[in-house]
Amino acid sequence: MENKHKTECPEQSCSAKTKKHLLPKGLICLVIIVALFGGIGWKMGMAPMLNTIMHTAHDLLLNTCFYLMAICVLTGALGKLFVEFGVVDLIEKVLRPLMRPVFRLPGVASLGAVLTFLSDNPAIITLAHDKHFSGYFKKYQYISLTNFGTAFGMGLIVIVFMLGQGYMLEPLLGFVGACCGCIVSTRLMQYFVLKAYPQYKEENALDSEQFEKQAERPTHQEEKSTFLRTLNSLLDGGKSGVEVGISIIPGVLIISTLVMILTFGPSADGTFTGKAYEGIAILPTLANKLDWLLQPLFGFSDPHQIAFPITALGAVGAALSLVPNFLAQGWIDGNAIAVFTGIGMCWSGFLSTHTAMLDTIGYRELTSKAIMSHCVGGLVAALVAHGLFLVFG
Fold first, then answer.
1. Which of 224, 12, 201 is nearest to 104 (CA)?
2. DSSP codes of every residue in 253-316
3. Strands in the chain per DSSP E
4. 162-195: burial string, b at 16+ Cβ within 10 Å, e else
5. pTM exceeds 0.85 for this model
6. What is the DSSP letter of 211?
7. Is residue 4 pLDDT above 80, yes or no?
């Protein structure tokens, strides 16, 4: 009985410590939520605030999320078709010689860029878990794959979305900016890793067999007709696009609704009616105070434009949902589209994915360095996109 009592005490003590540890966090969370929505409710009124939140989320769901899902389905089908008929292999072969001199990565890393561009950030982790693929990398290169892949995540969706808004040259300038941001982010991450762990320069990521680009297709697949292969690719790719489209809905509804309340102002007569897209306009007020910095660096012509990069930090799909409303208000020009494309592609929700990605490959302690590197990379992407627009726009 005495031994039993001794073994139970540490568990009870541990439970008590856990509760004491969680209590301050719970209070902090409660204070933040009450302060945020209490402040907004004090300005707008509780009933108009709640109505605006619901109406904004509903309108975003119907007019933005389903539009983005349609783009995801079409781009997913196109991406799967490219994989099926070797277009991805061709692009990867063309890009391979650029990897080592530009990114300090093995040539096979180009496949990661193509796959994340056609899908989303986590595709690079799926590839990194392939032992044949990771066998080409030193540890510092392997860790930097999270930064490299994130810079191209949802790239095709972002570009197609911007093209759908009626802009042709600007999204391409933004794409070049994102590539430049990727170079800075990847190499800066490698610098931080080598500074902290110099031995990683020579250590292999994994001892494994050499990577083979793609496993040979099964014989029965080769025997299928071109028509069936095309049809299956389009349908399978479209199905994966639906999954991507559904996955971006929470980010759009939660993040965009909050950002829009902080971006837009009251109705035309200055009152809060509870309609969609009303708010307290805090972000433009803050952006006005930083206009001396934002205008020369990024060419932002309207303070509301700052909402896009802030939203892209959490989810680029949510950031894209801002664009139609900004266009309707006349707050966006060609320069903004170029900058949005560059910073949207490069950041593409990295705050919500970097931690999980580094944890998955086993280097959680380097998360802060990855975030810092990618933050700098996104700013470089915006700077380059703005500079290119001044020259070619």
1. 201
2. IIIIHHHHHHH----TTS-----TT----HHHHHHHHTHHHHHHHH---SGGGGHHHHHHTT-H
3. none
4. bbeeebeebbbbbbbbbbbbbbbbbbbbbebbbe
5. no
6. P
7. no
